[in-house]
Amino acid sequence: MSTARFILKRLMLIVPVLFGVSVAVFGLLHIAPGGPAAVLLGPLQNEQIIQEVRSQLGLDKPFYVQYWLWASSAIVGDLGTSWTVQQGTPVVDLIKSRLLLTFELALLAQLLAVLIGIPAGIIGAVRQNKPADHLSRIGALSGISIPNFWLGIVLIMVFGVTFNFDWGTGGWISPFEDPVANLQHLILPVIALGTARAAIIQRMTRSEMLETMNQDYIRTARAMGISEREVILKDATKNALIPVVTVIGIGIGGLLNGAVLTETVFNLPGLGKLFITAIARRDFEVIRALVLFITCVFVFANLSVDVLYAYLNPKIREDGGN
Amino acid sequence: MASNITEYDIDRRQFLALTGALSGASLAGCTGNSDSGGGSGTDSTGSSGGGSSDETVRLNVAIASEPWNFDPALWADTGSSAIGSLIYDEVIELTPDSELAPGLVKEVPKPTNDGMAFDYELRDGLQFHNGDEVTVEDFKYSVDWILNPDNNSPIRRRIPNVEGTEIVDDRTLRLNLTTQFSTLNWWLTRGLEGIVQKGSRGSASEREGPTGIATNLTTDPSGAGTGPFEFVEWNTNENVLLKKNENYWKEGIPKVDEINFQIMPEDSTRLANLRSGTTDLTTSIPDKDFESLKGDPSIKTGTVPGNTTEVLYLNLMEAEGNPMSNVNNRRAVQWGIDAEEILDEIFYGRGVAQQGLWYPDSEWTSPKLKEMKMYDQEKARRELEKAGNPDGFTFEMLITKGSHLKDQGVVIQNQLSKIGIDVEITTLEKSALFDQVYNTTDWHAALENWTNAVPVVTYWLSTGFVPNDRNHNNWHHASPDLPDRYAPSGPPAPEDAEGDFSNGHDWYVQTLKKAQQTADEQEQKEIVYRLQEYLVENAIQIDIAYSSRLAAWSDSVSDYQMGSFASDIRPVTKD
Fold this sequence. Notes:
The structure holds 2 protein chains of 2 kinds. By secondary structure, chain A is mainly alpha-helical.
């Protein structure tokens, strides 16, 4: 199967995925108690007004009609206007204004995770069962076990309160205004978000390296007199990292989820904080758009990983991706 | 196989180099596309305290929740009101001492026309932030818009018994009443929180969103207010920035150049910002953290009795398996709850245990209730015997998820277990809880807290009890999905009631109306006492305790005035 056909096939699979997710989200919001009209108008509002507002929001229409109206607009890029987060503001504008921050945070966290995870995994495998390996494994276990919101609070208390760094309590500054301050303010959120990913990458890298280093071609390389450094870095690492690429790729989508808590703790006005506000305020338009957006990121991250994997490993292409 | 690997070796290297380049380019692309939103609130959240290079004094105030609406005819939440009260001026002000004071009017008026009207005369020289003069036409527009039922203003209920307005002269507006209503000025403190320019709300067809929710002022009230600060920007999830109104009518205020409301929902983040100096003042402080703030030498703290009451709603409606439809069961629960212990355990001793609905030290609280022992296990056991449940009974208590209320519910559960009452706790998201309480009979009790904005006992006796449909206790309601509004729910009218009343609620509503109408303070008190006693005697709902208002600010801030119902940030200075 050619790469083009492989990609085409995967692209076609995206359509049912997006349809399924959008129907599921729409359905869940439809049955959730305490709808947006009641939340908007407060607890003592008149029942008649609540019904009027429901009607004006289209919430009194049958489920399939509501879905059709929303989906037909969403397909052409019209995701509606916010009901309760910032009334009347186009949802696309709300998302656009937060993309930069969330992607910057996710990418930097992923970069940190790769920079820590891969070397730590390689060292752990090369020095298996030695102090460096134990240290690396303890670090990984800690990274996975410590919730990122808790780590975030601890970092704020240490750097923001105890050492009183003005960038230590969160907040965000645009890179266009002050690139240095922008990076300073993201140091702690990136650490909070990236450490768990680093731990996952470390564990994956270590296990793949251990498996690869027992392969025949590694023994052959050593027998040929190639230096140990060259064997590890050139022959073993390159092949061991192929599955790690999958973890890294999929991790981009996972980081968007992790950003929800990190942005809340560090008071970063990104997509995660918007999501939390939209859920609390039952802003169905914003919730649907964000779920759709995050689904797209996941799906395309997966697709990219599949394509990359197929490119790196011809066996995948040869058997049609099965 | 090995040759294959070698064959792809070079390609992968090229690929990685390409990937690196593309990643950099895509990051640059992302940054380039988001110019409009990203930078907008930067200097506010990024600012670390007071003065910037041009000596602008900025007060950073951390708030826990996003505002909803900047139209004073539409906001019904305290968050919007706290910010909005700086953009607009109240017609009648409520001071931190809970007194009335003239706001945009020259004086607080007395009723005229045999008590059937109030005349409000505007101050001279008032200006909107856009420089236009405030006229009586603007005043009339602002009131009429709220009164117009087509606009679905959620605060319409805060201007009761007003049937319309008329212009008396070029500075005076008359509010005509349907009935005598001596406490109207108190209600207006939260019913008329701003005068806006005629036509500024736009027509219904121009508006974004449904009526009752949005107008042209909802997200951008630029130029619309008359208050001490002008609206600059609102960045959702980030901040609301206000700047000083240089032409404010009140001498000597405001004293800071800007107020930046930082939106920080996370408690620990808010407090860390206060401790580090990034935040100057916050009023959103969890009780558990207050003591530690008091120990910080760089932070000042304040506490006053609050206007939020912890309350147990009871479902009076007769429904299958609902033990709360039995008045003796309700009373047993009432006498079985120890409010003092709740204050100690949940609020660290800060707050006031209630003796009925109103503040126990107020002259407006029934003397009989002041003397009453509210926590009395023997009395509770006797009520259980009368109910035919000497060994107790079981009921379900709904509680809002993820709040102090759950801890409070556990304390109540423990207290009631001592008299044999078994409490099953169910936690729900807040709006789901109210959905169940208002729209079904399928519940027994719900633990919630409730804030009332107006310091008048008749206001509190009305809210949650009188309205026909959004009633806390299923005392009565008009929902078509539920039984008849006067189905046998709740107790009958008192035996000594004068008149023909179909139900205790009917008597309650008519009697409260008399209290609101009379201008005779003693007569009003006697009626109010009787109503408070009726609520306790029949355990319509169980009012547990008022929690305290808490605030903390950095030592560079001074002149913040805290009040039980209204705090004043306008005179605040910052070194």
